[in-house]
């Protein structure tokens, strides 16, 4: 699923992310850290495809559960809060941007300004704040052919390096 997502083939990737969540729930349980991370990954794909209502339903009480499992100040909880805020904003919630701003500020305070997750979500916040309501160029959130070609070329180079 991850490779398909990187290739921009979100509709092809989503079933694999769903399977990951279902397998994690069945084998590890609803509150296992790996299940929560898999759930967050699935919700990201759904959000990127523009399926906001389904993504919100899928996310459910995952943020509260993450706080219980990881603790309020754990990196994975902070990421889940940022994912939920990003989804809320994408779905048109008035408080989504403020929630994402608060999540980024907590990440920076707890993880540090230079931490990769702080930087990632700070960039997301910058993009969102700079272009409120901006949607993906493709209606289904799918990447164009040029993006796929770049990733496929890089993948080919990596495979040659491994051989």
* Distance, first to last CA: 23 Å
Portion in helices: over 70%
Helix count from the secondary structure assignment: 9
Derived from helix and strand composition plus strand pairing, the structural class reads mainly alpha
Mean pLDDT, to the nearest integer, reads: 83
Extended strand count:
0
Shape: globular
Q: H/E order of the elements? A: HHHHHHHHH
Question: How would you sum up the major sheet?
Answer: none
Share of residues in strands = under 5%
Radius of gyration: 16 Å
Poorly predicted regions? 132-148
What does this structure look like?
The protein is an all-alpha fold and 163 residues long. Helix content is 75%, strand content 0%. The chain has helices at residues 2-6, 10-28, 33-48, 52-59, 62-70, 75-90, 96-111, 116-130, 145-162. Helix 4 (52-59) runs antiparallel to helix 6 and helix 5 packs antiparallel against helix 6. The longest helix is centred in the first third of the chain and has 19 residues, at 10-28. It is globular and about 35 Å long. The two termini are 23 Å apart.
Features:
mainly alpha; 163 residues
Short summary:
The chain is mainly alpha-helical and 163 residues long.
Which helices and strands occur, and which strands form pairs?
Elements: H1 2-6, H2 10-28, H3 33-48, H4 52-59, H5 62-70, H6 75-90, H7 96-111, H8 116-130, H9 145-162
């Amino acid at each position: 699923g991850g490779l398909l997502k990187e290739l921009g083939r979100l509709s092809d990737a989503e079933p694999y992310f769903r399977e990951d969540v279902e397998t994690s729930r069945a084998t590890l349980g609803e509150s296992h850290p790996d299940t929560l991370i898999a759930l967050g990954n699935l919700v990201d794909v759904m959000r990127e495809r523009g399926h906001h209502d389904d993504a919100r339903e899928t996310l459910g009480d995952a943020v509260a559960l993450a706080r219980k499992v990881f603790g309020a100040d754990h990196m994975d909880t902070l990421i889940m809060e940022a994912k939920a805020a990003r989804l809320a904003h994408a779905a048109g919630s008035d408080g989504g941007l403020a929630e994402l701003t608060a999540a980024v500020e907590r990440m920076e305070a707890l993880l540090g300004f230079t931490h990769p997750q702080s930087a990632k979500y700070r960039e997301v916040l910058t993009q969102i704040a700079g272009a409120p309501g901006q949607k993906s160029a493709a209606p289904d959130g799918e990447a164009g052919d040029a993006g796929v070609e770049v990733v496929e070329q890089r993948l080919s180079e990596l495979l040659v390096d491994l051989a």
